[in-house]
Amino acid sequence: MRNPIILTSLLCLWPGLSWAQGDQLPLPIDDIETVTVTAERQAVPLNEIGSSIEILDAQDLAKGQYLFVLDALETLPGVSISQNGAFGGFAAVRIRGALSEQTLVLIDGVIVNDPSAPGGGFNFATLSPFDIERIEVLKGPQSTLYGSDAIGGVINIITRTPESGTALSGRFEAGSFATFSSSGGLAIGRPKGSLRLSASAITSDGISKADQRDGNTEKDGYEALTLSARGQYSLTPIVSFLVSARYVASRAEFDGFGFPTGVVDADEEADSDEFNLNASADLTLLGGRLQNRFSFLFSRIERENFAAGTSTFAAQGERRGFAYRGLLNARKLGSIAFGVKTEETRFETSFDAPAQLTINSLYANWFVKPASNLSFSAGLRLDDHERFGNATTFRVTANYYDEDRGWRLRGNYGEGFKAPSPFQLTFACCGATAPNPDLQPESSKAWEVGIEKALGHENFRFTATFFRRTTRNLIDFSFASGIYENIARSRTKGLELGFVAAFSRSFQLSANYTYLTARDRDTGDQRARIPKPSAFARLDWRASRKLNTSLSLTYNGQESDAFGTIGEWVRLDLKASYRLSGQVELFGRIDNLLDENYQDVFGFGTPGISAFGGLRVLY
Questions:
Q1: In this predicted model, what pLDDT tens digit does every residue of 315-329 receive, in sequence order?
Q2: Measuring CA to CA, how many Å separate 405 from each of 89, 412, 500?
Q3: CATH of 2-218+257-617, one of 2.40.170.20, 1.20.1510.10, 3.40.30.120, 3.30.390.10
């Protein structure tokens, strides 16, 4: 796949607009209230939201020089990462201690969780940040608005919509481990519509997935190609159309199972092809007060594993759904977002016959501002699963914002549920003659309270959030019975702290800290791969109008794992960019500046000190 690298690299030589780079520090503190988010299934200013939400925009992704979205998510409070080795190793994201399969992931409204995976989670290892406009991370149960799989939260990814005019953009980077990546895109914006086409590619010799410090020396390479398109067209002032599509092809070498760490060098490879599509039509009625969207949503993933060149496992998963979403502006009575959806999920593997499930959903969410500084929302959802019947979830939020005094108070209560995955419903082995007919959905209830205070004309901002969640009927595989069973319960609670300080136009410090206990209610133990304390801090220094630098610190507390305990670790990363002219910018970084010896998952390696550099053209 090195040809895609060359092709996308050539785009870097074209004069064009870089969509993801600014010449300033991160979002000024006093502009926070201008950001709108879609947490209520409609655009709402951030300071009116009663839920916990973290936002990463295109500028954040560019300043961080991230090769993968996974690396950006690691900087957020309450979010933990587990990756089975860098450069393509399976990557799980946990929100406030929830399992990765309890997090719903959407790209332009399309659910991309893998129906063929045992738990139905999403593998973040291949997700490129290049054409992403914004990532919204909603914490806590969100099933009322987003349905099954949203027990822990939602990661909502929105790709770029071109502005007026025509532009080409590109980026090229090279660095340690023979890593080369490039991205390029074409954006066309016209009064009646827009079109964006983009491509990104990466190839790397990588490092050994099994930790080299345990005697594993074979490097495990990685390569991927991502193609993305988004088009919008307004037929009339009240009728418009949207089509968004994304395709990812990847190949990752990995290592095999072995003692004593659980992983050793092996000649194995995982290939995957992912495709998702959103085709929507919008109809605006009642003078703009009623917005309607009719959508066809589709995602498909095909995976195949090889050992020494021989296929050992293959899987296919597919989701297709039809959805209607309405938004009614009821004026003084607030606004109501409502919708219906029918979704069919299919999967098959080398060892399992094809199977499919259907779920139909109906939801409504009311958002109202009884006063200029006070907002409420309440939502209700009914899901009808063909196997389990009906599931009802409820959610309510409240938010108070005193702009003059700089105070913000918020709180919410929400419920979540997760239907068993198709794999869990159909799998049996080890002496079992049939899958478990009594398997029930997982369910959760959670609440949180948060406070935010701005000081010094908004130059300093402090946030604190306390949360608590209980989850029942957790599904796990029982080796004793050979089937999946509801055999666990958990209770999660914690505190998230955040701080942003703009000391001047040149210096800004941002930091967050999370303390999280995620207990198995039957054993009392902290659940595996979830650190109690974690923290992230970054100091941004704008040395001149042309030179921007940042130094970041990532801390991860001790974790338990199946084969041992992962010790706490601290990593420092140094990044800089220099604008040679109004059109050309150089950037570079040193990751793991102190060459820290650490692991994300027990037995799997992480890169030591490494350097990367590249070029952007900014016209």
A1: 999 999 999 999 999
A2: 47, 23, 17
A3: 2.40.170.20
